[in-house]
Structures are given as structure tokens and as C-alpha cells.
Amino acid sequence: MNRIQQTRVEMMNFSASEITEEISSIEYLYDINIQHEYITRIPVPPPLPKSDQLPRSYNVPQRPPKYPRGDLLASREDYFNICVPLYEASIISNWEAANVVLERCPELVRFAINENWETPLHVVASAEETKQTIQFVKHLVKRMESGELEYQNKSGNTALCLACIAGNVKMVKIMVKSHPRLLDIPGSQRMMPLYLSALHGRYETVKYLYEKSCKMTGEHWTTQKQGWVLLKCVEYEFFDIALNIVEDCPTLVSNGNVFGALARKPDAFNGVLEQKLSTRIITSICRFLKAKSSAEEDSTGAHKLLRISLRNTIRKMSKQEVDVILKGPGLVRDGMVEYSSRILFVAAEMGNAIFLIELLRAYPDLIWSVNDDNYSIFHVATINRHQDVYNLLYEIGPMKDMLTSLEDKNGNNMLHLVGMTSRTMRSQKFGASLLMQRELSWFKEVEKMIPSTLRTRKNNAGETPYGLFFQNNQDLVSQGLNWTKNGMIVATLIITVAFAVAFTVPGGYNQEHGNPIFIHRHTFFVFVIADAVSLFSSSTSLLVFLSILTSRHSPRDFMFSLPTKLMIGQVTLFISVAAMMVTFSASFFVIYQHKLTWLPILIATLAAMPVIVFAVLQFPLWVDMFSSRFDSHNLFKPKKRMLYCTNPRF
């Protein structure tokens, strides 16, 4: 019995149409294999760039691309009868369906099954990693020879490259274990599998491949490619891997890309400097409970990486080389080169105080640097409202006047900048009144910091700092008043309801002596007390909001009294809403105390929902009001020196 006859016997259980399609496709492949006349109508992949058109780091010996067989793509009948079903089975990891075809034609594992020239292994390697896909890959790898795992699709990616892009670390381990040489075969645009995984932020895959790549050594690993992997690890905050790379190859930090990436990640460092009052209190308690805690133990991976990078650059390179690193790439504008991405000012813009502290401790002269707009790092910190960077001014001493007196080409000093940038900072505070309070805090602080002669100086447009500030924040007053009016409306409605309920008690009054019928029930006392609390608290809230409307709205009011009044008004308004719901629930307990006892319980449960929703929605506002009232006084004048001390704690 020949192969075709055997296949016909195996397919007795299939439908007539399926048998006809399967036999015709297998006979076609069988005739090709017997006659050894392979169809050569294979699309030619796009040619690779010439060596002189590639970066210098690419000019290394390159292996020729290795493509799967494209015989099935040449015939539309074979494409729809074989390729499409096998592709569907591969993409959903249905091994039973795929095995039916592969058992009859095992050579299909080395054929391209789609127009991107991908084998079944390519298809399943790019799918989501599940138990089914892992088993599918294991079965395919067993059926393929080592050299067949090197097949590339039209883009030049092997199946390993696609698994690295998808972050399928278990699939990667299966293929690498079967054929370790896959690690040295570049994929699309000559990118190595390790870099492809780092490019897409696949931590587990990057960690595994770095261990298996012999620390990125070999003829395909150039310094540029190693630097790319390091940069992506920093950008995706894989600092443990980045630390290993820097320790293995310290020269990779010499191009400045690592510093630029670290400067843009203030959250990756120890975040105590940017924490709010409540978080700082919790952190202080945790530190107090520790027996001993050194600065090194508190350091994050980003902090350690920064220190190692500084030791390998600033302390070992010449001043000219360091200046090139810190300047960053230049941009040509109007025939002049501008360095808008200087690492020092990028960190100041992002509020990365710890990065700046470490950089200034290693290179103190940088504190006097200015950017293309003649701004120091403290001007940039003021524009972006980063108080932790701004507070470093207190550690300079009287020489700070040399920095605070700087003006840009339009004649704007640091106090002008506070008023100019108020509109850009509005998304960072909840509520117009609270924003005005924070902006006034900044204005008063900078006003005390700069020389007195600059406080009333006009810029080139004839604007004083004070006039510019209130011109840009004039609408905040009206917005704050509208916010207060809305609170007054709610409080008034609650007062009306609570007052009316006090004279329409559940059950009514006894016509003989005028007392409420259910006066002797405990639930009736809960009803009366809750109604009184609702009435009094809503009245208090209304009076507080009314006092805000009738206030003078002077800068001192926004600084101190308004945040306190807003906090009292919001809290009493919440109490009135909660008490009103208790009053509503208690009335049902009074009426249905002996019959239908489940009904008041259900009503009380449902009545709690508005109170919970109101609390959840108002919680961010309460936190902001609490922070504005108590934490704003601690924004400036740090109690501890951070810049020039032996062991700074962050």
C-alpha cells in the first residue's frame, strides 16, 4: 500500500468534501517529492541595505537569511486547503487539529503557511503564552531539526525573535534549549533577540536571555547594540538587569543615554521627597522602628545605577568629555546649535531631586549652569512647581542671589515665572480655591527669596510680577465662588428636607394629648436625633459657604482661612447627608418594627449606598484640602541639609 492509499484509509471518517480536498493536496505534495522537481516560484524578500549604507556597528559578518519553503504559497488551492487550516490550528494552539495534517505530511513544519513567510512555529510563537501554546511549541520543536529553527519570515525574524517580542519566556527556553545558536541570529533590522525583548519591555525574557547570551559577547554584539539594551532596561525600569550590564561593561554609560533616561524617572528613585504629609509620617514611623537603616539600604535600583554610572564617567573622564555627556544631543535652530535636552535641566523639569543631588555632589560646578533661556535649574523647578529641587537654594547661602537675579531675554525674573506658569499647573490641584492657595504660597516664597529690587521690576512688556500673577489667576476667584455656590445649594436642600421631616413624624400624633404615637420606641429617638444632626450640620455648612462668598478674597484669605472653611463646609455637608439617610432608614424601623422586619433592614442597606458613594467621590478632595491646609507650610525651608552632607537620607 503506497502513501496515498494509506492516507485514504486514514481519512475514512472525514466527510466527502474534506477527503477530496485532503487527498488532492497530499497527492500534489507526493508528486513533488517523488519527482524532486520543487517549485521555485518563491517571492524574493526585500534586499538588504548595502554595507556602506549601514551604521558602522552593523558592518560585521552577517549570515545569509534562511527562509522556509514557499511551495504551498505558489498554489492558491494548496494555500486554502493546507495553509489556512494549519494557520488557524497554530494561532489557537489546537494541536489535535494540526496533528491530523502533520501526521500525514511531517515536512509541513518547514513550509511557509502565510504570505509573511512564517512557519507554524512562527505563528504559535507570537501567540499568547498558555499551557496549550507551550505544548504546541514542544511538539513542533520535536518534529523540527535544529537548522529548521533558524527559518526567518519575510521581516527577517526567527520564531525565537517573535517569542521574545511577545515575552513568551517559556517558549524561548524551549527553543534555546533545543538550539542555543538561535541567540546569535539577528531578527528584523539586524536586531538581536535580547534587544527585541528589551525593546518591548519583556522583563522575564530579558533576564533569561541576558544570562544565556554570555553577557552580550560575540561577533554580533557591538558596543552600540549593548548600549541599546542597557538603555531599554533603564527606560522600562529593569534596574537589576541594568546594574548587571553596567558592572559587566562599565564603558556603556559613557554616551550619556543612561543619564538622560534616569533624569526622566523621578519615581524610580526613593520617593520620600515627593510624598505628601501622611505618607511621610508613615515612612518616618517605619524608619523609627528599624534598628539601623543605612542610606545604601534605602537606595533603590535606580539610585545604585546612578552612583555606579557617576563613578565610571564624571570621576574618570575629562571635563570636556563630561560636558558632552551632560549636554545631550543638540538641535540646530536658526543656524545655532541649542541643547534643549541637557540632562541637568531635564531632571529639574521632571522634579528628580535625588538625581540632581547626586549629580551636584559629584560635579558641584553644575549648580551655576544655565540653559539656552538663561534659566538655572531653580528657575526650571519654579516653572514646574518642584519644591524639592527649589529647596536646594537654601543650601547655597548668600550666593543664591546670583542665580535668583537671572532674567531671560524678555526681562522676566523668577517671580515673573511664577505668574506666567500658573495656568499650566491647574491640572495638578483639585479645586480653584486650593489651586489659588498653592500658587500664592509659591509667589510669597519666591518673593522672599529674590532680591527686593526685583520684586517690582517690570519685564520688557511692562508687566510687574504681581500684576502678571493676578492677571493669570483672576478667573480662579470666580471659579472658587461658583464651587462654593454649588455647595450652598446642596446644603439648602438638606435643610429644607430636615426641617420638614421634624414636623411630619412617622405614625403621626395622638389627637388627645398631641404627642407622637411612637414616642416610646427607641427607633423613634434615633429618628429624631438623626434629623436634628442633619439639620444642624447642613445649616453649619450653609453658613460656612456663605462666609466664603462674603469674604474679601484677599491673598491672605486664600492662604489660610479659605482652605480651613472649605474643609469645615465639606465635612459638615457630608455629615448632614449621612444623618439624612439615617433619618430615612429609622422611619421604616419605627413603622415596621413588628411586621415585615426584613423591609427596614433592606431599606437601611440601600440607604447606605449614597453615603458610601459620596464619601468615595469626595475623598480625593478631602485629601487635597487637608494637604493644602497643613502640608503647604512644610513645602519650603527643609529641616535637613540634602545637598552637602556626609550621608544624605532620601
Structure description:
This protein is mostly helical and 650 residues long. It folds into three domains: 38-213, Alpha Horseshoe (Serine Threonine Protein Phosphatase 5, Tetratricopeptide repeat); 267-298 and 319-474, Alpha Horseshoe (Serine Threonine Protein Phosphatase 5, Tetratricopeptide repeat); 476-634. It has helices at residues 3-10, 16-35, 76-91, 95-104, 120-125, 131-143, 159-166, 169-178, 193-199, 203-212, 223-235, 239-248, 257-263, 277-289, 295-298, 301-312, 319-327, 343-350, 353-362, 377-383, 387-390, 401-404, 414-420, 432-449, 465-472, 474-501, 522-549, 555-591, 598-631, and strands spanning 331-333, 336-338. A two-stranded antiparallel ribbon has the order 1-2. Strand 1 (331-333) and strand 2 (336-338) form a beta hairpin. Mean pLDDT is 79; it is low at 1-61, 272-278 and 287-297.
CATH 2nd-level architecture of the largest domain:
Alpha Horseshoe
What is the count of distinct domains? Answer: 3
In CATH, what is the homologous superfamily of the largest domain?
Answer: Ankyrin repeat-containing domain
Biggest pleated-sheet summary: 2 strands, antiparallel
Strand order of the largest sheet: 1-2
CATH class of the largest domain: Mainly Alpha
Q: For the residues shown, what is the average pLDDT?
A: 79
Please report which band the strand proportion falls in: under 5%, 5-15%, 15-25%, 25-35%, 35-45% or over 45%. under 5%
* Global geometry: flat
How many individual β-strands? 2
CATH topology of the largest domain: Serine Threonine Protein Phosphatase 5, Tetratricopeptide repeat
Give the proportion of residues in helices. Answer: 55-70%
The computed structural class is mainly alpha
End-to-end distance, in Å?
81 Å
* Tally of alpha and pi helices: 29
> Unreliable stretches, pLDDT < 50, 5 or more residues?
1-61, 272-278, 287-297
Q: Mind telling me the C-alpha Rg?
A: 36 Å
